[in-house]
Amino acid sequence: MGDSMKIIDGLTMRRMVLTAAILLDNHHPEVDALNVFPVPDGDTGTNMSLTFNNGAEEVKKLPETASVFDVTKALSRGLLMGARGNSGVIMSQIFRGFSKSLKGKTDITAVDVANAFADGSKVAYKAVMRPVEGTILTVIRESSEAGVTHVQEDMDIEEWFDFFVQSAEETLNKTPELLPVLKEVGVVDSGGSGLLWVFKGFIAGLKGESIEKADTSKVTTEVKVEEKPKGYNTHFLMRVAERKMGAFNLDSFTKELERLPAKDLNIQQREDLIDVQLLTKRPGHAVNAALRYGDILKINVANVAVEDEEVKYFEEEELKEVGIIAVAAGEGVKNLFMELHCDGVVSGGQTMNPATEDLVAAIKSVKAAKVIVLPNNSNIVMTANQAADVLADEIEVFVIPSKTVPQGLSACLMYNEEESIEDNIAAMEEAVGNVKTGQVTFAIKDTQIDGVEIKANQYMALCDKQIKACVPDKIDALKETIKGLVDEESEIMTLICGEDITEDERTSVTDYLNDVYPDIEIDVIDGKQPVYSFIIGVE
User: Fold this and answer.
1) Could you tell me which of 494, 531, 528, 537 has the C-alpha nearest to residue 330?
2) pTM for this structure?
3) What is the chain's percent helix, strand, coil content, to nearest 5?
4) pLDDT less than 50: residues of the chain
5) CA distance 371 to 356
């Protein structure tokens, strides 16, 4: 090929993607550090890195002979399903447009690449309801426009890519001029910065540089994975033989299975058909117990350690008409949603935004024709919409744009099974609009924002997204937050206490609120959520 390189083939494209995944992963802590808000859930870099790695994993599965289009298509699919947070969703849309533009191409020229990034920019802009300049969107739009203007037939690809990456860097550096809050805090946009690392990874891969994986594990220990119980989810349908009907007793059969031992036992009988679900380390013993009474018609055994979804129910199960899914963190908060009509709660919210595929799996597991989703976090709404798109052909999904837990709870309270889905959606959306949310959390860095002096490890009073105060004591922060939320109209207050709040603190706060706000109906809940000491809803 000589020194000049005119085309990118599938193998090169694959190397570009895998190098970009490593480079973004190596630098994700510094992208996280660019988050403007000094709250502990600023995780743009983590979200983008997890999203891009999911795309890279799909690419790794391809044979080395795959075409450029095959590589970009696998990348696009992996990004789409793995997208976490708004930055991850926007990045997945950029590469969705990028891949569509290269349809059917075995290898590509500089002109193809330039046009593909331009298409990616257009698709990403369409995916965002109200595009904000000074973000990842500006970085892709301006660099791709420059790339199209600069490109010529037969141009050396490395030369074009150098120009393209330089344009992206120039745009990134001027994001503070476009977005006042970036300027106030003195940082460039975090999403745009993550995208630039991807582009830099592409160019390194193109030039054949090898990039070592850095150890960033010290930084990402935040992400807690819930311990799953060990054993096998066992689900079978048995038919009791006629001659055994007299001998079969549901209670004694249940006790027999409990002695296995078995957990989460759920047994339902319809005449001679018995549907059995349990979690046990000895699925074989459970089956043997059943075979003494008759035949097994269907069975599904899944090792919990490797299983992502709940045991899949058998197809005969009736589809519900409408189901509701919420996203939440904290045992108490999850239980609250389950008590209020929810069919499932996806773990997530702060510091761990669920991926598109997590929401898709949860929506499917409800087994309903129509599913309402409550994201309860402004960084999860886009992911929920993306999950709805993925499922468009099989399930009607309605995303209520709840941005906080109190908004989601208020929406759930409005749900009425007697009403039509349209009326329910309208009532739930209205409820979301009537709730004011406050939060108390600790600051992760010294900065100045909204004119408030922020000191690391002090507690911030957040009213909706505005920082009202930053003080050493969490209870004082709570009082400031509530002052900013309550007015003459306020009737109901819900206070959700985090995992760091003691019984005594909870009691004294409850007494204080009842004293100071005698006319407001006050509900104090032990939410056990991480990161946020208090979440307050006022309506």
Assistant:
1) 528
2) 0.79
3) 45, 20, 35
4) 1-2, 218-228, 307-316
5) 15
